[in-house]
Amino acid sequence: MTNLDKTSLWETVLAELQLSLSGANFQTWFKGKTSIISINNSLVEIGCSSPYNKVWVEERYFGKIKEVIDRVTGVSNTLVFSVSSQDLGLKPKKRAVVAPSTVPLFDEAAPIIQEAIEQANINPKYSFSNFVVGQSNQLAFAASKAVSEAPFEHYNPFLVYGGVGVGKTHLVSALAHAVVLRRAQAKVLYTSSETFTNEMVAAIQNRQTSTFRGKYRAVDVLVVDDIQFIAGRESTQEEFFHTFNHLYNLGKQLVFSCDRDPGELEKLQDRLKSRFIGGLMVKIDSPDLELREAILLAKSRDIGLDLDFSTIRLLAENLGPSIRDLEGGLLRLAAASKLVGKKVDISLVESVVSLTRKKPEKNIDYILEEVAKFFSIKVGDLKGSRRTKTFVFPRQVTMYLLRHENGLSFKEIAGHLGGKDHTTVIYAVNKVDNLVEKGGEAARLIVDLKSRIYKG
Ligand code: ADP
Ligand code: MG
Known about the structure:
Elements: H1 3-20, H2 23-29, E1 34-40, E2 43-48, H3 51-73, E3 78-83, H4 109-119, H5 138-149, E4 158-161, H6 168-182, E5 188-192, H7 193-205, H8 209-217, E6 221-225, H9 234-249, E7 253-258, H10 270-277, E8 280-283, H11 289-302, H12 309-318, H13 323-339, H14 346-356, H15 364-374, H16 379-383, H17 389-404, H18 410-416, H19 422-438, H20 440-454
Parallel strand pairs: 2-3, 4-7, 4-8, 5-6, 6-7
Antiparallel strand pairs: 1-2
Helix pairs in contact: 1-3, 3-11, 5-6, 7-8, 11-12, 11-13, 12-14, 13-14, 15-17, 17-19, 18-19, 19-20
Bound molecules: adenosine-5'-diphosphate and magnesium ion (MG).
């Protein structure tokens, strides 16, 4: 089809949608925000302006769009939705988009595939199709897809790195999952570096090192998650290095994840570092607001929560930074709504959000100074051990704040306050808890102090 065909086809779709949608919905989701990017045979790629837009349009209007396109073209089409600014030029040829439904997953093949997924030790809930793509992870996503489509070729080893809960495990598992689906004959294995280490230690103890080596050296695609755990363990690094070389020399695909740039792992052997650097390393950043919204939308649908735009926005602004935090927030919201037996509304969201809203980290010195100032004593007196009433109560209040507001352990608190015994801290926190619960003057004073210190 020519460009004009694409355009006029989409205009037809829009015209029909406009009839059945409210004006606001149409303006928000379609007008100027969607288009057909390509049509190849019956594969129609629909571009959306943002990840959020994509999830929304695909979730809600897939059926309607397909119905119109099929009717106008006279054939049954496969629709693929993508974020149109997503072309990263990572692959030499035009991005081939394969919709999940075009993978030949016949009923008879399903048990075989399921078994292969189990053998590969992959958590089947992780796939590319439920990985929401945005600014912070699009490069990692595109690269992972490229590796899964053409393993052993370009990016070897392939390493994804980034902080906690940004989607590393999801992505490397999805990569392995996709290889299993496309190449029944390939032997794929997902493992964490902890499992690798534990199995190695057990093998040495039981004198079964050759079985251990056999397992890891017989694979075509080896995924090792969280390799930061092997840094600092000399014998594990040694074994890992040999496994790595063995597979690499045979042209097998190696995929890793790490919680930071491996170059920054102090105890990682240089020869391993240079191996990683020799391949492709991509970073996943923390999700920005738009990606958080898209993920919240997709995940809320998964758990059957029907949230509107303003609710999603409120959650996205207050939950995070990691995607695991978003999931946690949604689950709490679902639980809360079940508990009080009502639909999710803003007040329910606020109550859940305010519970989880991250308090700005205040540094300990600052807190000690503020408490001391409040009670007109010196920081040294807070840390000291004089047991006069003037000092004991402020000390107890400090312990209470560090415990509840900063989440420090009793031991840590003891350390910050001049190395007292941690049972002293437990006693103090309990005592102030009781005071606050009783209300009255002491409680008012503590609330006042708390708002002064943690207001920002
Ligand atoms: P990491 O391994 O980086 O700590 P995970 O891969 O375990 O993070 O991700 C944490 C949770 O967030 C998982 O449940 C995962 O499915 C989900 N998640 C992460 N990134 C995405 C994404 N882009 N789209 C959908 N879910 C995601
Ligand atoms: Mg992980």
